Amino acid sequence: MLWELLLVFIKVGLVSFGGGYAVITLIQREVSEKGWMGSGAFQEIVSLAGMAPGSIATNTATLIGYSKAGLGGAIAATVGIILPSLIIVICIAVFFLKLQSNDWVRSSFYGLRPIVTGLILYAAVHFAFSGQSGSWLSWTMAGSLLICGGCLVLVAKYKVHPFAVILLSAVAGIVIF
Amino acid sequence: MIATIEEEIVRKKGWMNEEEMGDMISVSGSAPGGVAVNSATFIGYRLGGVAGAVAAVTAITLPTFLIVFLLSGLRLLFKDNVKVEAALKGIHAAVAALIIVAAGKMWKASVLDAATFVLVAVSLALLLFTQIHPFYLIVGGLTAGVLVVLYKKKQGMSVVTEKVRTEERRDLQFPEYYI
């Protein structure tokens, strides 16, 4: 199991372009293919991962590793997702520092960035509609929309720190639900 | 995030100069993985070789690792508490909002013309309606980028491959993928 966790997350780490939120989609696909956990359990992990500081992708890996194989699993998954970036960054630092000014690299990233946007959008859609039991017109749904909308305004318009927003929503959740 | 690292590394510690900092940002923004962890790798490597890189990455990961544990422990402790369940529902909505904000920032940095718009639409559609593995999308995007630029150049069109970078817009070019 440890070995499998390590390998799966090395695979994810290798293509973790775009950092955190885009990688959620990748991890979700791996986890559901392996049948490691259901969608509800996965979204709960993502929620927890979003609360902690640091990368939501790495935090998700840590929690999945922990739920599958305890402390050892958590370490295996975390090392797995970080290792490829570590090696790639060192290679770039040694060999191709001028990478960004290379035309091929520029054009590849021109195509890659929209894909990352697509991955994040998908994560948003999937996350927003998961774990919502009941109809569209339920009290829970209305409350969730209200909190989500409020957070959007606070973060996008007033540049409130994400952690403050998370704390506020926890309080709002207790009040509303 | 980048502003914090710059403050610490360039001004307080004097470990790197502004130009090296620019290199660091472009490397850690383009390699897979998070900008923060990649920056730590880059700085660690510059100052202390491979051992330095491993030390820096361990140091930036460890606190989060412990906090994640603490949180999941607390979660188990209060498993059936109604108040905690309600708070988590609120947090779920907040995290959804944060993902939407990240998508918006990434949209601004990525959708530069019709071709990039189509790529976003196609990748989202494929993810929603097929079982395609995201890995193929990433490889497809890298390839499509090269092909589109080649085609446009052949047609004599000019292509802007990235947002014009100015000091204030650094954060926009490498959006804060990570909170």
From TrEMBL, chain A:
It is a multi-pass membrane protein. It comes from the Bacteria. Keywords: Cell membrane, Membrane, Transmembrane, Transmembrane helix. It is found in: Cell membrane. Pfam families: Chromate_transp. The keyword Cell membrane applies. The chain crosses the membrane at residues 6-24, 72-97, 109-130, 136-155, 160-176. Belongs to the chromate ion transporter (CHR) (TC 2.A.51) family. This is Chromate transporter. It comes from Paenibacillus phytohabitans. The lineage of its organism: Bacteria, Bacillati, Bacillota, Bacilli, Bacillales.
